Amino acid sequence: xxxxxxxxxxxxxxxxxxxxxxxxxxxxxxxxxxxxxxxxxxxxxxxxxxxxxxxxxxxxxxxxxxxxxxxxxxxxxxxxxxxxxxxxxxxxxxxxxxxxxxxxxxxxxxxxxxxxxxxxxxxxxxxxxxxxxxxxxxxxxxxxxxxxxxxxxxxxxxxxxxxxxxxxxxxxxxxxxxxxxxxxxxxxxxxxxxxxxxxxxxxxxxxxxxxxxxxxxxxxxxxxxxxxxxxxxxxxxxxxxxxxxxxxxxxxxxxxxxxxxx
Length: 262
Ligand SMILES: Nc1ncnc2c1ncn2[C@@H]1O[C@H](COP(=O)(O)OP(=O)(O)O)[C@@H](O)[C@H]1O
Ligand SMILES: [Mg+2]
Prior knowledge:
Blueprint: E1 2-11, E2 15-25, E3 30-34, H1 41-49, E4 57-66, E5 69-70, H2 76-81, E6 84-87, H3 99-106, H4 115-125, H5 127-131, H6 142-155, E7 160-164, H7 172-189, E8 192-197, H8 200-206, E9 209-214, E10 217-223, H9 224-229, H10 231-236, H11 248-257
Parallel strand pairs: 3-8, 3-9, 6-7, 7-8
Antiparallel strand pairs: 1-2, 1-4, 4-5, 9-10
Helix pairs in contact: 3-6, 4-6
The structure holds adenosine-5'-diphosphate and magnesium ion (MG).
The site of adenosine-5'-diphosphate has 13 residues, from strand 2 and helix 1.
């Protein structure tokens, strides 16, 4: 469905942030992009959705192809019309509006006749939003605000949903609940998902395929099941290792094993 080939992204014509990203998202899959803070995950999603334009960013090399069309450097609205919807990091909602009003804003690209059906669909997956549909969205809990952000995206009937760190700042139980809903949206609604996460454990638990990003590059990719077993991923992203390493000798082999460094 989506193919990035050797994509480079530059800001202000001089700051090179993505240094040749290649990745694929298959129709119907959940694909995840994991990596530490500052790796370039959000920039990748902003490039796909066209939002880098608003930050003076540009795809300066390579391509982004969606459903057979080249879409790099198009306007965000044109990209949204193709069915790519981006849920940005940090639960961007309209605090002053009610949840229902937020959802109506999310449906602005849909024909009027589909709005009611869209609301029903969102309330089916997020019954808590229905219960709280008439209060100010600013009073919702963090988890409910994340649900509202995803629900608003759902109102646009996406083919491809780009999710930027839906777990950020939320309690573990709420994260489990939200990931379960994401899984259902994929399986029951057939929405293809590209999920960006620092929470590698949750992301690899949900995804079919994963990419690991560091310093603006993809350093590793494999089916999620395999990535979970990869020693470097276990050590650096899942916080698991066979034994405690304390001596310098250990540190050296540790460095060597981190094969993508340098
Ligand atoms: N608009 C921008 N202008 C300049 N540099 C940026 C801009 N947006 C992001 N960056 C830089 O790109 C790098 C990757 O950022 P980002 O994609 O937000 O990482 P992540 O989402 O993986 O934490 C960071 O070093 C960040 O400072
Ligand atoms: Mg980010």
